[in-house]
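Q: Fold this one first, please.
A: Sequence and structure below.
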Amino acid sequence: MDERWAHDYTQQFLSRCLFLYFIQRKRWLGNDPEFLRTFYQTYQDTARPTDTFVEKWINVLFFQAFNNRFQGGYAYFPASIRETLQLAPYLNGGLFRENELDTEYTVKISDELWQGIFTFFEKYNFTIAEDTPLDQEVAVDPEMIGKVYESLVSVEDEERGDAGIFYTPRIEIDLMCRLSLVDNLTNNSDTPDKDALKHTLYEVLFAFEEVEKQEADVNLGEHWQAVYEHLQDITVLDPACGSGSFLVGMLHILDDLHGRAEQHLGIPSTRPFDRRKALIGRNLYGVDVKSWACKVAELRLWLSLIIDAEFTTAELNVREEPLLPDFSFNIRHGDSIVQDIGGMNLAQTRSLGSGVSPKLQRKIEDLQTEKRKFYNGEEERKYEEKEEVEATEHNLFREILQDYETRKSKEIRLVEAWLEDPAEQLTLTGVTAPKPRQLSFETQQKQQELAKHKENLAQVQRARAALASHTTLPFVWDIAFGEIFRQRGGFDIIIENPPYVRQEQIADPTLPRAEVTTANKKEYKAKLARAIYQMFPEHFGYRENRNTVANKLDAKSDLYVYFYLHGLSLLNPKGTFCSITSNSWLDVGYGKNLQAFLLKKCHLKLVLDNAAKRSFKGVNINTIITLTSAPNETGEANEQHIVRFVNFTVPFEAILDPIIFYEVETATVRTRTPEHRIHPSVQEDLLTSGIGEKGKYAGDKWGAKYLRAPDIYWYLLENYHDKLIRVGDVADTPRGFTTGANSFFVLDSQTISTWGIEADFLSPVINSPRDVKSLLIAPNQLPYSLFMCSKRKSALRGTAALEYIKWGESQSFHQRSSIRSRRLWYGIRKRPLPPLTFPQLVGSTAKTTYAPKGCLAIDNFTEIHPSSALSVPLCLSLNSTVFQLMLNLSGCANRGYGFLKMQTSDLSNLLCVNPEILNISGGG
């Protein structure tokens, strides 16, 4: 019996028991709110064979009664139990369908073990409404179940924090769902005054009391019809759904909107259960790489369905369809980003499947119809088992690729024929033959077109070959949700809290922990990057046939960066993306890729921070919420859009108000209120600010500037910008000496004395900020020196330096990878002595030191080389309060012990008071 199976079987069994507790609270089992207690007590009273309660009683309830298959028999049940089981609700939906976990091994759950499970569950009060404890002290509502399950990881996972699993608080979920709906409903409206509509939609979506809802609904007026029609078809996806919190949150809001729309439009009101069931089936989708998470998401959605399901026992008994829908094709298990088969990423085939034939289009529509029948458990359906639907999905995907190959081959033949005799081809079409120069241009265009066609043909042929060689396929977006991509062009809303996994921990999530190696981690990260390049080849300058990338993703990118970019690729053109992630990408180096993409391809609408309250308690992660448009193919119109950076100074609970977001949406200049600070920025200006020395976007400190910067920062920029200058504009800022082996090259006075090393081979060096007692450095008073020798050994005979070098070789210093490539492994080339030095790790106060004749520093310092006349003025400028402000805003925090990290490139870009305007002469 394997450990994985044991874990999954246990979780499934406990989930069934959990659901059973909620079912009995509905009084759907013999009108008995404590049916399970009665059921178990009856078993004990009838003196049945020991250790048969689960096998002969619970399993009959699960697999017979809840599947509408209890037709009598089972004489060992008393009459009252037989009657209750015969009238039990027809649930099914997959939760109570016997599956491979139930049949793979023979399971024997003893009465003693069951007693422990039963005793544990009986301690809790299972409430029906989410987050609404009743009279008992210990309550378990459906939302709490999500929290409990998400605090667990599968048996082969690392600790919860290392796996990046953090439960999104309910307030953040609610806020993100409402913001997404306001944006998407506005995007899909035909009204010319979208700003006015958005303001009204804020009133509608952020109305919580009945009076507020009625007033907002009246204000929406004639727009209700269009809103209602879009709500019928809207598709919402969480590509890292975990326990389904975003899906459940969106379900509640959509259900409320549907009910209000029906009332306002005079549409006969739908029963809450039926409305929610329809909403989940056609509107909500989730994917997660953890199978246990998918099961919990399903459980949460089932529980959300039965909350308001007011069925009598008689009604349940005559239902022909199961009460619970089957979520198999709404909640998918798989890797959201990497869909690799034999080295072929099938996710890239999305663009290859456009323009399918009418025959294939009908097949897609028929499959969608059959999926809905399967979801509802209709008797008149084509497929009885999930595997049959999956097989049809795979076969249809193969047909789509074959259809594309046929059409592409035909297009290639037509272009080749044109190139053989372009003049004849033009004449045959009735067009006057062009002049030779024009013909040459058109020939060049046709050749480029032919090359593109052939590249696409090769792609689809590789995909078909990969499919042919594998009988079992991984999760593939275009197979699982083919109808959404081919009928709607993608999802309407992507909403996510992706795993928080640092770059060094990224590994294939499908591999057991024991099988993760450095090599396969590197391979998986390459697949992640390739998946993104293939989605946006033009932006990244990706050429698959050459396997080259002009604009590579930073290898230090955390996992959420890949989720961010991939999620954007899943949207339709009017789609909305909303994500809560670490705020690191706003300020650190690897964030430049994401920043550049958003500015050039999308409209980054909102970046929301909260200075009053962290979203994840007890976790050292600061988060932001972003709201973004779908990528624009050309990107031409995006640069004039406004990004609104908002730092809330009160908890999110206090800003769920339409007035707050009206203030945010209409802000065109920096604004401060008691609740927030808003900084609007034009995307073109953000692009310009981030341009580096080579003319490419190098990233900027968005968090520091636009979310955290105090008013004095902007006051200085606006009123004294002509007196500020980049450090790099007045000085060179190379990194300090990289020795490759500080323990050999950096010597204290005792070591020098012990070996008697000659002064000719020593140069004073700053080894640590602790070495510096004041801003003015006296090199001869420093406690360390750098061993600097450029002579060959033959020229060092009789010196202590030679003996020290031989000792170094006996310690294998010369074999270190950082040293052995040097002409003389012990040789460090001399270079100009910097008058100023700056530490890369900064404590509470920045300290730039000055050595009149210069002094070396090792590589945890940055050297500063201004002109000699500017050394003293620049030193004063870099020790000023103004520079301290610039440093605090731009340094990378979270380095531990309160330090800021300042790379050489960061220092070069910092603003300081221009030393040329300081009226100070240089000198000692």
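Q: Good. Now the second chain.
A: Here it is, same layout.
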Amino acid sequence: MTLPQNPDAPFRGEVLAPALPIGYSADTLPIRHTGEPMSHYDVFISYSRKDDADQFVTRMKAALEAAGLRVWMDDKIVSSAEWWAQIETHIERSHNFLLFISEHSLASEWCQKEIAHAFDNGKRLIAFQLSAIDEKRVKGTWMDTGWEQIARANWEPLRKVQWITDHLDVPDFAAAVERIRADAQSDPKYVEAHTRLLLQAQTWQNSGESPGAHISGEPLAEAERWLAGWDGKTLPAPTDLQRAFVSACRTAQVAAEQASAAEEARVQELEARAQHAQHELTAVQAKIAEGEGRIRSLELAADAVEILNDPAGNYELAALLGIRALRVRYTPHADAALIKASDGLHTFAVLYGHDGYITNAVFSPDGHFIITANSDSAVRIWETATGKLNRVLRGHEGGISSATYSPDGQFIVTASWDKTVRIWNALTGDFIRIFRGHSGQVTHAAYSPDGRFIVSSSLDHTAQIWNSVTGERILTFSGHQHDVSSAAYSPDGQLILTTSFDGTALVWKAETGQLIQKFHKHESGISSGMFSPDGRFIVTASADNTSRIWQVSTGEAIQVLRGPEGGMSSAAYSPDGRFIVTGSGSHTARIWDAITGDVIRVLRGHMGRVNCVAYSPDGRSIVTGSRDTTARLWKAIATHEVRVLSGHGHIVRCATYSPDGYFVVTASDDHTARIWDTLTGGSVLILRGHEEKVHSAAYSPDGYFVVTASDDHTARIWNATTGEPIYILQGHQHGVTSAAYSPDGRFIVTASLDHTARIWNASTGELIQILARHQDGVNNATYNQSGSFIFTADRNRTAHIWDATTNKLICTLHGHAGFVYNLISETTDRFAVSASSDRTARIWDINTGETVHVLHGHQSEVRSAAFSPNGNLIVTTSSDSTARIWDATTGEEIRVLRGHHGVVYSAAFSPDGRFIVTASDDGTARIWDADYRDFIAYACTRVFRDFTPEERRRYGIDDTPTCPQFGNLTP
């Protein structure tokens, strides 16, 4: 049935409705708005449906919502006996009551009841007059109605409300919307507090004033402040119900507090006893856990060290163990193991995706691609820059033994166990030609330097030359007594080298097939051979664990490269002929000096035999292929790790950061200072000019200059950008041990073994003052952080504090039992730290001159000490080859940095405190993470696999990922 329209109802529209509830007629049926969540609204709209004939009220609702207000208006007709209760609830949950005033709404029973409920609940009323009002006619409609008294009671307070009427003469819808919006959003916090407290009070009232409906604590205090802050005028005004509710809540809270006070007092002693017992238990458990963690960390560290000490040890596995050990518990042993392992990780990419072991891997002539041959009958082409798989060549019916580019990079020749050789288009991957003729598996195939011919080797004991265009077989080389493992052209294309498992290598005339040289000193089969870039030498790899360098003209072995057990599987020259890389059955590859035969570097990381090795065309990278089904890209010897600054020819005595942290300056006994890029680890500038050892180097505060101190009795100022010398500070009568800028950059202080420190004008190089009250040589001089003091450390076992303005001695610090190498303050200038030859560092209270902490731990003299930028940490260096990090507040040792192979002379924090740079007499400076957890994150960037299931069982490692790239674990 269709519900009849009630002309007085404050809504519009028609819907289908169920049968009418008992006691209601179609004319009087209250309708409720259904489906609305019980949330707060900014505005409740009360109106007569007769006034919305042109949808003015509906438009106004939409406009207010578009302006950001939450609006509730009853615009749906649904039959329900609960309708009026819903209307009341929405009025109570609305901050403002918007009444569209007209004769129709004033003559509406439901509108009048809504107005009354709004007044009863103290709602702020916004009266919007829609049309002129005839008061007598309106009041006449109330006569003899059941709601007459409600309407009359509403009239007087309604007349006192300021009606919005400024739109009546000239209707302006937008202005009306803005006026209502402004009124509705005025004093929003006050209105929201009124609504919130009203709803809480009603909940309390409806629950029969149940204590469970009370509020307490800060909500109660906030409600009391709201009531107390009412000025007697602001609407909506507090209601009696709200006041009664707040009063009841305060009474209940006071009673509860009083009741609980006694109970609290009674249990406090029991709780204190229980807490004390729990603390003792927790402390014991923590010590047990710490001990167990330390033991576990040491076990894993010991496993890592065992791998590192094994000549064939896998450094990647050692690094994974070191990471795990540090995650369990920090120990210096785990830290040192991970540092050593990280230094040996030279892989920078791993090519995954092979279904079998790799037999051959080479670069394209331009170095942009890598091609790998595989036992799974497929050839894969990879992008060198990204490591992404570019293309897969399929067609052979057996495993691929080799794949090589043509000299122009346009073609690829492959050799297979299916006894054939094939040529492919390197750009499209299309198959071009097949060569048939070998009666055994083909072990290798390669182009001639001019690309006209292809030479292949086979298990049929022969090698053959083919016309690369026609596929015609031109020559067959027969002379080996066993399988021929490889064949290669000389760089000029005149000769061909073949190697065999009969232990010999043969050199043939490429044009005639004439045998001209035989190499036969290997004690086992030869797996590969290659000419040097100049064609004068060849290198062979053999199962007898050696690789040999032969002189082509004489046939003599001029160098024997002896590798580990497992046999040499392959060998290749670098493009410049200076180096040789070999692969072996020990899962490693080695880089050798081709002249001296010395091992330059061991490449560890593969988990199976390294079957093939090759240099990139530029000599900067090496690719290796392994039985572990991966190919790896490695840094060749021309590059250095970013964190090891190598280049000085002698001891590095000092290293410190530039103010922006982008550069490091080092000072060395090689008479130079160097500036390094911290991002690349490369040397940017070499500061040459000193005639003796350079003891120190330091940046100016603005980073534009560097000052150095030398044994040649001078300090020098340099342009940090160009490396040009600016001033020579002359005057000291002995070696200058240190030089440093004042914090404002105006002055430089130098220290010398002539028993003085000197202050210089940094802009002119002029001498200003001599600090001469030292009893022995001065090892170091520096300003404090504010520039108000100068600190000096001398060989008379003392340190001194001077007034930087008057240059007068303020106090002398006594306590060290040996040379004091330096004294430096932290940022607040409250404390200073000194380093001494007595194997200790000391933290001093600058104001009192008293020792706060003595830092014990180094096994030899402490050469330097420095605070972190925030003053929380201290780093010390020592002749025991370590640097150590300490908690500046407690004096406890936090971390030991092991990796240098000699005295560590100095250390400095980066400006952001994340890194530390150290200088050593091993000729290097090193950059370290100040937090070992950051070092773990760095080490994770250097590994390309996680533990295998077998390794997890062997070392007792759980299934969680070791590094982020292996799962969701955060280091």
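Q: Anything worth noting on the second one?
A: Confidence is low (pLDDT under 50) at residues 1-37.
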